[in-house]
Each structure stands twice: as C-alpha cells, then as structure tokens.
Amino acid sequence: MIVPFDSGSPVPPYEQVRSGLATRINDRTLAVGTKLPTVRRLAADLGIAPNTVARAYRELEEAGLIETRGRAGSFVAAAGDQTRHQAQQAAAEYAKKTRRLGLDDAEALSIVRAALDEGNG
Q1: pLDDT per residue over 10-34, tens digit each?
Q2: For 9, 14, 79, 114, which has the most beta carbons within 10 A of its beta carbon?
Q3: CA distance 118 to 64
Q4: Would you give the end-to-end CA distance of the chain in angstroms?
Q5: Residue 64 DSSP SS3
C-alpha cells in the first residue's frame, strides 16, 4: 500500500492520505518523478471515496509536493525536494523573531509544540 490508512482513526481520511504521502515524499521513499496511483485507484485500494483522495492530492499539489499532468496522472514534483529547505528557513526566521522578542529556547519550543498540536486537532 502506498500510504498507511486506519479507518478507525480520529484523523480525517483525507488528512491521513495527505500526511502519509507528504511523509513519504519528504523522506524520499517516493522519489521525484514517481507516478502516483489515480485518485480512483487509491480510493478503491483504501476503501474510501474518490473525493477524499482528490482533496488530499489537491492539498499536496498546492504545497508543491506533487504535480498533475492532465491525463498522464499525478507525480511527485521536483519542488517536493524544497519542502524541508523551506521549513528550515521558516524555523530560522522564527528563531530570530523569538530572540528579538526576548523569549528563551524553552518558551519558543513550547509555542511551536502547541502550534503543532493545534494543527493535529
């Protein structure tokens, strides 16, 4: 299976698909140029609605992790290689901002953890 999926999970199905694929793209398990299953095929494999997979693919495309080439299908985008770099840049900017605000490392990390937890809820 291309992406782990748990029908009993409280995490919405589209988010499980999106995050599962994003993780595999970012850790390079899915290499640049890899063709993804069609929306219908992945939906059938996971036992979920095609619209659910389509939403996950749309969000991945908006994030630059995949690209859709019309009838040719969806592929892992070369831009996907840039996501970790972009996250590192955002972290560096955040670190500078927290220093200017006078926050110590523990408090800055606590804020990040809270934001990440909020994003999972």
Answers
A1: 999 999 999 999 999 988 899 999 9
A2: 14
A3: 23
A4: 26
A5: coil
Q: Which residue matches tokens 């955040």?
A: 94
Place of tokens 């995050």: 19
Q: Report d(CA 10, CA 109) in Å as an integer.
A: 26
Residues 100-118: pLDDT tens digits? Answer: 999 999 999 999 999 988 8
Taking only the tens place, the pLDDT of each residue in 61-91 is 998 999 999 899 999 998 755 666 777 889 9
Residue 31, φ and ψ in degrees, nearest 5: -75, 160
Q: How far apart are CA 4 and CA 63, in angstroms?
A: 20
- Tell how strand 66-68 and strand 74-76 pair up: antiparallel
